[in-house]
Amino acid sequence: MFNLCGRFSLWLLLALTPLYAQQSFKDFKKVQVESFKSYKDERDSAFEKYLKGEWKAFSEQEPTPLYEEPKPLEITPAAPQAQNPVGPKIYLQIKEDANNSVVAEVKPQIIKQKALSFDFFGTKMAFDVSESLKKSNFYPQNQSGITNFFTTAASSEYETLISDIQTTAQEMELNDWGLYLLVTKISQMATSNPDNANLLSWFLLNKLGYAVKIGIANGHTVLMHYAQKTIYATPRYSFANKNYYVVANYAKGSAGRVFSYEQEYPNATKELDLSLEKLPNFVLKRQQKLLQFSLQGKSYSIPFAYNKNLIDFMATYPQADYETFFNTPLEKSTLSDLSIAFKEHISGKKASEAINFMLHFVQNAFVYQQDNEQFSREKVMFAQETLYYDKSDCEDRAVLFSSLIKEFFGINVVGVKYKDHMATALYIPLEGDSVSVKSKRFVVADPTYVNATLGMSMPKYRAIKPVEYIVVKQD
Asked: Which whole-number Å values give the CA distances from 75 to 225, 247, 289, 383, 447, in the listed order?
């Protein structure tokens, strides 16, 4: 009797399995039909039809290198030379930091009673993702699955989530990269499926007005962001002569051939702008550092504080254009500390002597090392990062030095880029090596050429025309 019952149960299970599968598929189709009937945004019906149209293959474009030739492994120091101080006396002003003790927090109503909670560079975050939005699924794993995901998401309760993201981004003063990281984190917390996470980010960013596309490569989703400026070491695709980048693959190699569509989501035209002219408002995780160097037999110490949460944020950055790095400010608390330290050594000195002191500080306070040796990839650092790390190479020092010159002296400065090197040049009336920028004479200052003073180029570059000048904007 037991064997008979067991066999009957097994037969019944086998018989009903196809019925369960059919019912599951019917439930899935029912969700799609109900979704189609309840679009909340008039753009979605037409876009859903477009997604069902013909997709085609897009080949990855050749990446743009940061430098045409490898940077030198070592820099031979210059022979020390005396330079007669010229110019008016400098009296450095202390950079006051009015918010030195303020800790940024997201307002309580944003993090109260939410389903998803996580840490975002020191700030406790929480958001609700509706159950209807969570039903969006990449099924089947092809073009139809993309359409099915969009159909469900577009009819879900997504408006509150979009509003909360916008509010949080505004309160934290996030730039486009910060917003991208926030949306990515929410999507990854909402689903453990990487393809669904990419699709959710695609849907949310389109609704936030960004020009992003989704594609399929090797059976998985690929998220692509439109950017006008070059993002280096990042897979790139061309859609109607516009560059779209797979920023998730920065410094990780090729994404391969992608199957996708050309038309943008209606009114979603914003590019991914990596400029960081205003720092994000992160919770303060204060840490201290002491930079030491020697000059003409005398030792100097430069102490300063920084926000480690900001350093962690900067570490996520892809390789943006040089203007982004040269025009990102230092933290106000760091500037305040540096101004106190430099005032002791600079105030009362003539202009050229004061600037040379700053130049020698950048030349000697850090160990020279190529990015490929330090990070196993090319990485231009923000000025704040260069202060944080013990090692740096030419463009990192050029970024830091130009920031210090702008903040403490108010002098016009440019980055001077060669095929394998980066220096700076200042708009000052001094003799020495110089470059012409928009018919103006800028005196070379090389923060990597140890012992060099204002007007001294490395011998290799004196007869070489730079390939690019990076203008540092004045406030």
From this structure: 38, 33, 26, 21, 11
